[in-house]
Design brief:
Layout: E1 4-7, H1 23-36, E2 40-44, H2 50-59, E3 68-74, H3 86-93, E4 98-104, H4 107-114, H5 118-134, E5 138-144, H6 146-152, H7 154-167, E6 171-176, H8 183-196, E7 201-205, H9 212-221, E8 226-229, H10 243-253, H11 261-264, H12 267-277, E9 295-296, H13 299-307, E10 325-326, H14 334-343, H15 353-368, H16 377-386, E11 395-407, E12 410-421, E13 424-432, H17 435-447, E14 458-466, E15 477-484, E16 489-496, H18 499-518
Helix pairs in contact: 1-2, 1-12, 5-7, 6-7, 8-9, 13-14, 16-18, 17-18
The chain binds acetyl coenzyme *A (ACO) and pyruvic acid (PYR).
Pathway: Amino-acid biosynthesis; L-isoleucine biosynthesis; 2-oxobutanoate from pyruvate: step 1/3
EC number: 2.3.3.21
Catalytic activity: pyruvate + acetyl-CoA + H2O = (3R)-citramalate + CoA + H(+)
């Protein structure tokens, strides 16, 4: 058997806390895994619940391009005939060519979890595999707790594998079910298994010791041919080995051709698809696929990356569908700002060294006052624009006022705004649920006849962070406003001890940035 990828997101991944995939979710994930180039997809345990049973019915209509679907179950129950065990019968009804059977590889489990003699566990394995083989199925044998079992009673753990092999199993999968084994132990144990049993082995690693990737890599180095894991490392307790880390490591560092280059570029989209389908928040610092995996913040790093990205990147981000990003903050140097300005379309010749230094000094000073530009790039870009001698703002604010009114125990607000737009004086009022909403309504009402395009955008998120909580209601706050039009979203920032002022500053930036984009000024 060549190297194969085995995804158990739909089975072991579903055993992770907070994961509740619908049947439709499972089918959509199946489609994406298949397109990505996964060889085997463990779809579920048909004996466990009606949803998994329905999955095996539905998946037969899917015309998969690449993957084989695998149905999962335990070996037969103790003291029961295999042909009478519904778990096993449902495997036959699942309409698959491949099944995965797990059984105990640790004497402790046989004695305490199953509470049967050691011999009965071997008999369960033998009966189940023989029966499934007689019924024409390919059988992957998952030796549950194999590594802990080997450490406790190596003769018995090996006997479990030998029994499965003699009964006709097509592959012996060594499971680190409790996820606590060490790479050095994996190496020694697999060497011993390989010296005694002449069969292909697979690896199923859990991540309780944060070593699932390391343990799977050691298994690979020792000749394992199948790697079972999940997208994003979902799974029981701390999860399974994350295929989003394991696959690119094997492919890009060990040179194994597991998927095509094009498929590998779908790794990040696959991670996002599965994470979002599972209703989870993607983790920025996930190796390879996280938003921050190739994001540079420290000035020293960005200075070097501009000269040669290899200085601070272990692979090219595009290989896994990711991208390089640079942040500007108080930890930035000139390089961060130059990178960012170029990225958004500025001609760097427009900025003298002096202006860049002045801008970066301003960023550091403002961050010391509570601004945070890495999450508010639109405000940063506006700051750079305002350094252009020939830049005229789209409007000039004269003053504004807000009032809150309580009537019949319901509070609402009104705002009044005086400004000049295209040399015309505007004096306008509007109401809103609260003062910021009233100001937003008023501002847009004042601008709409001059810039009708502002109706295409709206505020989609508004976050307030108290910066010095000890000062109570007099504390300084940072307001981040996210605005979106039909194509993109952008974030702006304001900081003040007055929440209305902080919100107003962020609001003004958000509208001004929109007008910059709409007026076709060089911003991508
Ligand atoms: C390491 C792993 O991740 S293995 C996969 C674990 N996944 C799951 O458990 C999710 C799906 N599970 C289920 O839907 C249910 O647990 C079922 C349908 C399988 C069983 O439900 P129930 O019959 O109500 O039993 P329950 O879950 O309480 O206990 C499990 C039974 O399986 C037995 N069992 C455990 N491991 C094995 C095994 N390897 N081979 C055979 N039987 C086993 C246990 O001894 C216990 O038997 P008992 O009821 O006679 O005491
Ligand atoms: C089979 C399995 O999921 C395990 O041993 O962890």
């Amino acid at each position: 058997m060549g190297l194969t990828l085995y995804d158990t997101t739909l089975r072991d991944g579903s055993q992770g806390e907070g994961i509740a995939l619908s049947l439709d979710d499972k089918l959509r994930i199946t489609r994406q895994l298949d397109r990505f180039g996964i060889d085997f997809i463990e779809g579920g345990w048909p004996g466990s619940n009606p949803k998994d049973e329905a999955y095996f019915e539905e998946v037969q209509n899917m015309n998969l391009e690449n993957a084989k679907i695998v149905a999962f179950s335990s070996a037969r129950h103790p003291n029961m005939k295999v042909e009478e065990d519904t778990n096993i019968l449902k495997l036959l009804e699942a309409g698959v060519d491949y099944v995965a059977i797990f059984a105990k590889g640790w004497d402790l489990h046989v004695k305490e979890a199953l509470q049967v003699p050691l011999q009965e566990n071997l008999k369960m394995i033998e009966d189940t595999i023989s029966f499934l083989k007689e019924n024409g199925l390919n059988v992957f044998f998952d030796a549950e707790h194999f590594f802990d079992g080997y450490l406790s009673n190596p003769e018995y753990a090996l006997k479990v594998l030998e029994t499965a092999a003699e009964a006709g199993a097509d592959l012996l999968v060594l499971c680190d079910t409790n996820g606590g084994i060490l790479p050095s132990q994996v190496r020694t144990i697999i060497k011993d298994v390989k010296s005694k049993i002449d069969m292909d082995i697979g690896m199923h690693a859990h991540n309780d010791g944060e070593l699932a990737v390391a343990n799977s890599i050691v298994a690979y180095e020792e000749g394992a041919v199948q790697f079972q894991g999940t997208v994003g490392g979902l799974g029981e307790r701390c999860g399974n080995v994350d295929l989003c880390s394991l696959i690119p490591t094997l492919q890009l560092k060990y040179g194994e051709k597991l998927v095509t280059d094009q498929q590998l570029k779908q790794l990040k989209p696959l991670y996002y698809f599965v994470t979002e389908t599972a209703n989870l928040i993607p983790r920025n610092n996930k190796p390879y696929v996280g938003k921050s995996a190739f994001t540079h913040k420290g000035g020293i790093h960005v200075s070097a990356v501009r000269k040669n990205p290899h200085t601070y990147e272990h692979i090219e981000p595009e290989l896994v569908g990711n991208e390089r990003r640079v942040l500007v903050s108080e930890l930035a140097g000139k390089s961060n700002l130059l990178y960012k300005l170029k990225e958004v379309g500025f001609d760097l010749n427009d900025f003298s060294d002096e202006v860049i230094k002045k801008l970066i000094k301003k960023v550091k000073k403002l961050e010391n006052q509570g601004y945070q530009f890495e999450g508010a790039e639109a405000s940063l870009i506006l700051m750079a624009f305002r350094e252009f001698k020939d830049y005229n703002s789209f409007f000039e604010i004269e003053d504004f006022r807000t009032n809150s009114i309580n009537k019949d125990n319901h509070t609402y607000s009104e705002a009044v705004l005086k400004m000049t737009v295209k040399k015309q004086k505007v004096h306008i009022a509007a109401e809103g649920d609260g003062p910021v909403n009233a100001l937003d309504n008023c501002f847009r009402k004042a601008l709409v006849s001059f810039y009708p395009e502002i109706t295409e955008s709206k505020l989609i998120d508004y976050k307030v962070r108290v910066l010095n909580g000890n000062d109570g209601t007099a504390a300084k706050v940072r307001v981040l406003i996210e605005t979106a039009d039909l194509e993109k979203s952008w974030t702006t920032v304001g900081v003040s001890t007055n929440i209305i002022q902080a919100s107003w500053d962020a609001l003004v930036d958000s509208i001004e940035y929109l007008l910059l984009i709409k007026e076709g000024i060089r911003i991508i």
